[in-house]
């Protein structure tokens, strides 16, 4: 499966922008050599505005946390015997370990391309992708990830995480896995060091895991990404405090390095008191710690649960991302995590479906909330993984990379009916099909996306008008 065909675009005329979509339309000029937006000017011709078909231009989408090597295990015939039987976390660990014993380079490329193709068609132009390194798979997943990273680099920036899902300081194979990780993180294609402290046998080993990753991140100038505090047990110590303390002791701050630390899952934090949330935010702000949190709702709601008790219900938990941003001014985003495997057998690779789910999870039904949820899978997500400056908002900016989406109103039903969606809120509340999205990446248009059905020769240097695009979409 080849990456999509990309055609340079020099100007996109007559589009709506989120800050002024009801009053005017705009022309976006692009420098193809640098792949950046050079100007955004009012459209001088006849403008299509409210009630018409002028596309809405929004920033491209981002996966801040997704597992490339474990994607779509349930869709591959060779793993049919590993479909969930009881749906537990323990079963997911066990069946995934069995699946990893069958991983081959060819299989990993096939399933990885399924994920990349679907993501790029949805509008994802950057992702942080985890690939496992341990005694079971060696460098098989990493090597496949490096191949995919290079093959798909024009369509999507893939930030690779060398990831230890298994213990590195305990268990039968801890030392071997740690040595493999030591070798893997020296590779220039590896951008991030990822570990899972909570799988260690003891709390002491979990803390050694954290110190090791932070030390290696500073040593090799890499980002660090922890799967952390993935439980809902009030008795279990929240390791987030140890992470923050270690970063302070090691001198890792936004002033000392541009590399960042991401904390994923962290469902244990849903049990924090108001005072503890205030303390957490203060610790990060006062010490200038470049720490971001990523909630992973589809996995968290499926897997994270307190220890079972016969006399109580088992609630589910995921990070309160909206409250973390609005109330505590923490840097938080949301991500897909897994798709099509035992850890998350439901959901899609489309980040907009996650933003839509967030409306219900966080009871976030206002237009402002919808815009913030879109940021959490686009601009905020990209900044959180260190691929963009830390700014918020959905405005396209001159001088920034020309990665954005054009959302068109098209007939998704095949019945000749076009139903409009008004603004960012309409897109988040009811995500339009991929066929309605035109992807611009680095100033080039994805002409082989589902938006067009198949590649078309439509002007190699300019995307002239929204009406031309709409006509193509309807054919």
UniProtKB/TrEMBL annotation:
The keyword Transmembrane helix does not apply. GO terms for molecular function: hydrolase activity, acting on carbon-nitrogen (but not peptide) bonds, in cyclic amidines. The keyword Hydrolase applies. Keywords: Hydrolase. It comes from the Eukaryota. InterPro entries: Metal_Hydrolase (IPR032466), Metallo-hydrolase_Enzymes (IPR052349). This is Metallo-dependent hydrolase. The lineage of its organism: Eukaryota, Fungi, Dikarya, Ascomycota, Pezizomycotina.
């Amino acid at each position: 499966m080849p990456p999509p065909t990309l055609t340079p675009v020099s100007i996109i005329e007559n589009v709506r922008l989120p800050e002024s979509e009801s009053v005017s339309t705009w022309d976006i000029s692009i420098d193809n050599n640098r792949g950046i937006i050079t100007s955004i000017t009012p459209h001088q011709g006849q403008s299509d505005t409210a009630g018409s078909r002028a596309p809405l231009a929004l920033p491209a989408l981002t996966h801040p946390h997704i597992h490339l090597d474990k994607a779509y295990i349930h869709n591959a015939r060779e793993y049919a015997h590993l479909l969930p039987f009881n749906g537990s976390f323990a079963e997911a660990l066990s069946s995934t370990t069995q699946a990893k014993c069958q991983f081959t380079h060819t299989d990993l490329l096939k399933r990885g391309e399924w994920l990349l193709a679907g993501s790029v068609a949805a509008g994802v132009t950057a992702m942080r992708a985890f690939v496992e390194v341990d005694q079971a798979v060696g460098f098989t997943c990493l090597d496949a990830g490096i191949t995919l990273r290079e093959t798909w680099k024009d369509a999507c920036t893939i930030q690779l995480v060398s990831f230890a899902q298994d213990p590195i300081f305990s268990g039968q194979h801890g030392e071997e896995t740690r040595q493999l990780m030591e070798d893997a993180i020296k590779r220039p294609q590896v951008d991030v060091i990822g570990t899972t402290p909570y799988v260690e046998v003891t709390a002491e080993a979990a803390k050694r895991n954290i110190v090791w990753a932070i030390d290696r991140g500073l040593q090799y100038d890499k980002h660090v990404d922890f799967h952390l505090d993935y439980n809902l047990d009030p008795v279990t110590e929240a390791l987030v405090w140890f992470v923050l303390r270690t970063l302070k002791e090691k001198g890792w701050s936004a002033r000392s390095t541009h590399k960042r630390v991401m904390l994923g899952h962290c469902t244990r934090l849903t049990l924090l008191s108001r005072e503890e949330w205030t303390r957490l935010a203060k610790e990060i702000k006062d010490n200038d710690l470049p720490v971001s949190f990523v909630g992973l709702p589809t996995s968290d709601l499926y897997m994270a649960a307190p220890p079972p008790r016969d006399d109580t219900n088992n609630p589910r938990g995921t990070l309160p991302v909206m409250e973390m941003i609005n109330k505590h001014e923490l840097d938080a985003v949301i991500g897909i995590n897994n798709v099509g495997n035992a850890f998350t057998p439901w959901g899609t690779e489309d980040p907009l479906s996650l933003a839509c789910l967030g409306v219900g999870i966080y009871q976030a039904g206002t237009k402002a909330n919808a815009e913030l949820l879109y940021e959490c899978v686009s601009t905020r997500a990209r900044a959180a993984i260190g691929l963009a400056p830390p700014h918020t908002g959905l405005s396209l900016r001159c001088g920034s990379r020309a990665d954005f989406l054009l959302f068109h109103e098209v007939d998704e039903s095949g019945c000749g009916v076009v139903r409009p969606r008004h603004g960012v809120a309409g897109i988040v509340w009811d995500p339009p099909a991929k066929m309605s999205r035109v992807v611009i990446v680095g100033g080039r248009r994805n002409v082989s996306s589902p938006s067009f059905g198949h590649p078309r020769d439509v002007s190699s240097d300019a995307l002239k008008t929204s009406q031309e695009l709409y006509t193509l979409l309807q054919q």
